[in-house]
Amino acid sequence: MNSTPRRLLLAVAVSSVIWKWNQRIPAASLNNKLKNEEVLLNQLEELAEKLGILVRDENINIEETSSTGGLCRLEGKDVLILNSQVTVKEKNQVMIKALQQFDLSEIYIKPVIRELLEGHEGNS
Fold first, then answer.
1. Cβ pair 92, 82 in contact under 8 A
2. Single pTM value for the model
3. Is the predicted pLDDT of residue 120 greater than 90, yes or no?
4. Cα 58 to Cα 108: distance, rounded to the nearest angstrom
């Protein structure tokens, strides 16, 4: 499977979780939706921290490259680099894809976050 369908599936998954979140907030406005995406990003960053992953928000500005970021190992440590120039939704997608690579069975994760991470394993 090439990366375009994977990104589309991940985008749909993130949108689904955010939609579920918005259903809990009566008459959610556009500002609330953005705030919910930011809350999701914060919770994913907290989970990464529990796993010992360093999350860095960097300006990735390389000619002819449009990277949203990704996971790498640097000096034996897991580092997740997020492109500071992309949307919060895109950052969430990068975080989810990276976190799905780790064993999350022994860590408490809020149910809606766990559903997002486990419900779409193998689709990223």
1. no
2. 0.69
3. no
4. 28
